[in-house]
Amino acid sequence: MRGAEHEQLIERQLTLLLRRVQHLHGLSAPDRTDRTDSADSADGTDLDRSGYGILSRIADSGPQRLSALALAFGLDPSTITRQVQALESQGLLERQRDPRDRRASLLRLTEAGHARLGDTRRLRVQRLRDAMSAWSAEDRSTFGRLLADFNEAVGRTVPAHGGDPEPS
Predict the structure, then answer these.
(1) Is Transcription included in the keywords of this UniProt record (predicted)?
(2) What pTM was estimated for this model as a whole?
(3) What's the CATH code of the domain at 40?
(4) Which one in 67, 85, 107, 168 has a CA-CA gap of 20 to 30 Å to 10?
(5) pLDDT value, residue 102
(6) Is residue 43 part of a domain?
(7) Domain span at residue 139?
């Protein structure tokens, strides 16, 4: 296989991976084949993509201003506001005064938010374990290392949105 053929194969595999990861991370029960972005799963632990991303960002990087979240995700503030309001209404996020600027507020996870994110992360890790159950420990390690290298390389080539936190 020549260089261009390698890149074409990788591009096709990435497209397939993106679709499958949506399902891998979006389905909680085997009969929920239509679910890719609904707010609640059959078992009540899973989060939609935007909720998971927002809660993960705050859990991994600490309390955030709404504007910092919008920048980090490359979204319009009105879009991130709606997503944050949904998480607040579910009791997963709360606002606190920013000690550096009392006019502003910081978003932080509630106890329920930490619990829901933890449950969702455990569920997602279990799905990955199931998907890679036939892989050797060495293959899983190699894949993890190469995927981290790939993510770093892609991060250097795409426009920055305030920096992505390292995955937990």
Answers:
(1) yes
(2) 0.76
(3) 1.10.10.10
(4) 168
(5) 85
(6) yes
(7) 3-157
Burial 67-80 (b: 16+ CB within 10 A, else e): ebbbbbbebeeeeb
Lookup: tokens for 131: 């998907």
168 within a domain of the structure (yes/no): no
What mean pLDDT is predicted for residues 6-30?
A: 79
Structural domain count of the chain: 1
Two tokens, residue 22: 């949506």
Confidence of residue 160 (pLDDT cuts 50, 70, 90): low
Inform me whether the pLDDT recorded for 107 exceeds 90. Answer: yes
